[in-house]
Amino acid sequence: MQIRIKCGCGAESCREWAIIELQGFVEVQPSFQDRLQNLVIGELCRPSSQESYTFTVGYHELTGSKVPLKKPLLVLKKVKCMDVDQSCEGSSAGTDLEVVGIIRHRILFNTRPQALISKP
């Protein structure tokens, strides 16, 4: 089975994405369970140095670093093709994959969070 992959942005101009890796898991309150898409869980900042990142979730702050991946990953989007479209000839089951971005790095937060509020 052959699946065609299209990239219209060119090798040098593909959008750069990153993976955020957290230790543990993020629990969502029951009131937000049905609205997870576009749910803001925190704020990701890059202070002065480019290799250091902070991720603030509520009253907790995580510090992480940028780590390169051993092999880059592609972010793909499935595109359904019509039979009349000439560009989809030979593709399997009338679908193509379009490159949305490329992932070359991950931001790794491997330490415990620090509390931003202290007792008086």
Brief rundown of the structure:
The protein has 120 residues and is mostly beta strands.
Mean pLDDT: 78
Q: Report the uncertain regions.
A: none
Structural class: mainly beta
Count of separate DSSP helical elements: 0
* Cα separation of the termini: 65 Å
Radius of gyration: 20 Å
Helix share of residues?
under 10%
Please report the total strand number as a whole number: 7
Tertiary shape: extended
* Main pleated sheet: 7 strands, mixed
Tell me the number of structural domains. Answer: 1
Query: How much strand?
Result: over 45%
The arrangement of helices and strands along the chain is EEEEEEE
* Oligomeric grouping of the chains: single chain
GO cellular component, one term: Ctf18 RFC-like complex
Protein name: Chromosome transmission fidelity protein 8
Organism: Citrus clementina (Clementine)
GO biological process, one term: mitotic sister chromatid cohesion
